[in-house]
Amino acid sequence: MKHEKVIIPAIIAKTQDELNQRLLKVKDFVNIIQLDIMDNKFVPNSSLFFDFKLPETHCLFEAHLMINKPEEWIEHNWRKVDTILVHYETCSKPEKIIKKVKEKHKKIGFVLNPETPVENINSFLDDIDQVLIMTVNPGFYGSPFLRETLKKISTLRNMKPNIDIEVDGGVTPETISLVDKAGANMFVSGSYIMKAENVEEAVNNLRNKLTL
Q1: Is 35 helix (H, G, I), strand (E, B) or coil?
Q2: Has residue 1 been placed in a domain?
Q3: Active-site choice (17, 36, 164, 180)
Q4: Which residue among 1, 32, 145, 180 is least packed, with the fewest CB closer than 10 Å?
Q5: What is the mean pLDDT of residues 39-54?
Q6: How many Cβ atoms are within 10 Å of 207's Cβ, its own excluded?
Q7: Which of 51, 127, 129, 168 is catalytic?
Q8: Is residue 170 part of a domain?
Q9: Domain count, the chain
């Protein structure tokens, strides 16, 4: 099965103004935007951990929940986004979260930190829409890319050939072909896109490295 390959900017923001500025910067050049939600507990940083508002746009939004209590966030904020990505490490009852999100008619995915084996989510792969594999330790823009995560991507692609596999962390023109070849089809780039002076050029630089 051939998956569509997509470039997704990740937004970290401390205030509504910062969120607005960053959305304005990227929304015309992509179809999906990732919102990094951080509670300063699960990761040592905070982002979008307030009652933010999103503009009307053609873009789909996915929430990457780097927080200790994902159920609470989902309860209050599920309407804002199209996909909810929950760190498996924070799930005491994974089945319950999958059911809750699906009842809201939203997409659900699990996120795996670099040290979490893909085998841990094997029993849930038929029930979720995507898996996000962290290729850095989460929490900040610009963390170094971890090559040892490439094997996880190819292992997961073999385990579940038709699932969407997303990668997040250190994705640049130098690394994107590595995760592409390993089997990913959704590529999140935070600092490379957000710090670019020309976002359209940055997105194209990444896209041009993919085997389409």
Answers
A1: strand
A2: no
A3: 36
A4: 1
A5: 96
A6: 15
A7: 168
A8: yes
A9: 1
pLDDT at position 190, please?
Answer: 93
Instruction: Tell me the pLDDT tens digit for each residue of 52-88.
Output: 999 999 999 999 999 999 999 999 999 999 999 999 9
Quick check: is 36 catalytic? yes
Whether 82 is catalytic is no
E strand intervals along the chain: 6-11, 32-39, 46-47, 60-66, 83-87, 107-112, 130-134, 164-168, 186-189
Buried b (16+ CB within 10 A) or exposed e, 38-58: bbeebbebbbbbeebeeeeee
Contact 33, 7 (CB under 8 A): no
CATH classification at residue 92: 3.20.20.70
Q: Which of 95, 132, 139, 126 is CA-nearest to residue 112?
A: 132
Q: Which residues, at least 6 apart from 112, have a Cβ–Cβ distance to it below 8 Å?
A: 87, 88, 89, 118, 120, 121, 131, 132, 133, 134, 152
Q: What is the pLDDT of residues 12-26, one digit of tens each?
A: 999 999 999 999 999
Instruction: Look at residue 163 and tell me if it is in a domain.
Output: yes
